[in-house]
Amino acid sequence: MKSALLLAVILGLVSYTVYAERRVSALIQDRLGPNRVGWQGLLQPVADAAKLLLKENFTPQNANYFYFRLASKLAMVPPILVLGVLPFGSSLFGVPMTIASINVGALYVLAISSISVYGIVLAGWSSNSKYPFLGGIRSSSQMISYELSLALSLIPIFMLVGSLNLSEIVQYQVTHGWMIAPWWPQGMNYETLSHPAALLEAFRAGCSLQRLLLWIPLFISFLLFFISMFAETNRLPFDLPEAEQELIGGYHTEYSSMGFALFFLGEYTAMIAGAGVITTLFLGGWSLPLVPDGSHGWLWGLVNIAVFFTKVIMILFIFIWVRWTIPRFRFDQLMKLGWYFFFELAIANIFLAALILTYIK
Amino acid sequence: MMKLFSRFLKTSRLEGANHQPNKNGPQVIEKNDSLSLPHEGKSKNIHQKFIVDRRKLNWFEALYLPAIFGGMFITLKHIKKSLFGKGIITMQYPEEKWDSHLPEWYRGAPTLVKDEHGRERCVSCQLCEFICPPRAIVIKPMEIAEGDPWRKVEKAPRVFDIDMARCIYCGLCEEVCPEQAIYLRKDYSITGLNRTEMIHHKEQLYEMGGVMTGLVFKWNEKK
Asked: Cβ separation of B75 and A24 shorter than 8 Å?
């Protein structure tokens, strides 16, 4: 029941992310996006879905039929699986707002996002055509290289929190401050709202040198994770696999109708899943500083869900914003960045975080 | 031909990219090989060596992130201008048209004109049919009817069809016409329900063109 509701919400969010991308990129480029279908173009995703459903769904000649069909599903399903582990809110009527609060949540997320490489590689290879092949090869090497820094950059967080369970990481951030700004004091939550003096005291105690020192590895870790998430979801500046100027369509050139729809929506679902993971791990998940969690009433539970989705939408906006700002990396620059710069920085960051944690504790 | 083309590439690169000049000035190298075309004089065979200046980045620039944030700030300004100012330059078509302030050189649909004496200017010389790139114009000439004063000096078109589905609005027919007979007007949305409807015939063309004043009158009674 929860999963059905979540699936409906996510699919709606995906379609409207496509719409939002078209409108926001139009605003950046001094033009209007689609604004004719329905008021301000809000029914555009419906029109897109209708068009994609009514197109002819063909398989190219000499293409490997089984893998060709499988690849598009493999691109769409892993991001949805990732979304099953994220905590959307604290709890609503006593029901925790996660589909599966597993104890290896973060590891599960990283493992499942590795499966989405298969979708692209299979699409590229089974299309039996040169542009998808090149796009698939490039994309697989890119995604594998950035998975390293993706995982390694998260280790400081796990060292700090001591658990891989995503709900527990969010809970830690509620009490100890968001990972991106860990100068939260321990006493600053809803119960102390009625005592302003204690609040101020707790705030002053929180901004100590120790907390500020902790900020350095966590901020580096945030930057590394954020940029690696761009590479994982094949978004600009790392979007060589689907670079229209170079590869026509990249790995999804030979697909039409439902296959293309699955790839296209799968990319946006991966974006949403990535944004969800970033908010959960770094931006405090469903929590705002002085807002209590769902145990104080169902209204606060709803507020928490709304806060989570607002943060995800803000990060999606940053994804779209960066896409239309910077040019894409050349492939050798991309690989150099992933293997030399990010990998070494992530490992150095782990050592730095370990040093600081021994000093603090 | 390739030599000319590569020389064109080199010179155009020079003109645009001269903001970082070489310290010794551009070095001029005389080129005197046997592959150049015979009609190129010596003065045209000069290639300049151009050294691109690649400075090393300082540590702030090498981070790349400050430059990215600078760029993102610029795009944010565009978003703000598009939302709250006059940033958007798109015309919403059926509600806003620019028919009232089309530029005077705008090339719309081609039409035929009559002069102020009511004479149809076209003499079916078929030059426009010859020059039309997609071959949209079809002309069949005829003798002018008996009793008409122009019968002994000019012809007239029996059939003059412009297929608007083929017309590319290039204006070459207007440019080549020796009789000042065909002009491109400001009409840009030509529609039809099938391809036959899209062909404009002679009567329609004269009606769309109307009367044009200030034209040259070639013939008088003596001629």
From this structure: no
pLDDT at res. B50: 82
Q: What is the CA radius of gyration of chain A?
A: 22
Contacts of A301 (CB under 8 A, 6+ apart): A89, A90, A91, A92, A93, A97, A293, A294
The pLDDT value recorded for residue A271 is 92
Residues of chain A neighbouring B81 (CB-CB closer than 8 A): 30
* Domain hosting residue A253, numbered range: 60-360
Name the β-bridge partners of B111.
B183
**The domain over range B110-209 is classified in CATH as 3.30.70.3270:** yes
Total tally of structural domains belonging to chain A: 1
Helix (H, G, I), strand (E, B) or coil at A184: coil
Candidates B65, B82, B92, B95, partner chain A, best to mutate (most A CBs within 10 A): B82
Structure tokens at A317: 């906006």
Indicate the pLDDT class of residue B23, thresholds 50, 70 and 90. low
pLDDT at B19 > cutoff 70: no
Locate tokens 């009789």: which residue?
B179
Can you list the positions of beta strands (E) in chain B? 27-30, 46-49, 110-112, 137-143, 155-163, 182-184, 199-200
Nearest alpha carbon to residue B188 among B124, B93, B123, B120: B93
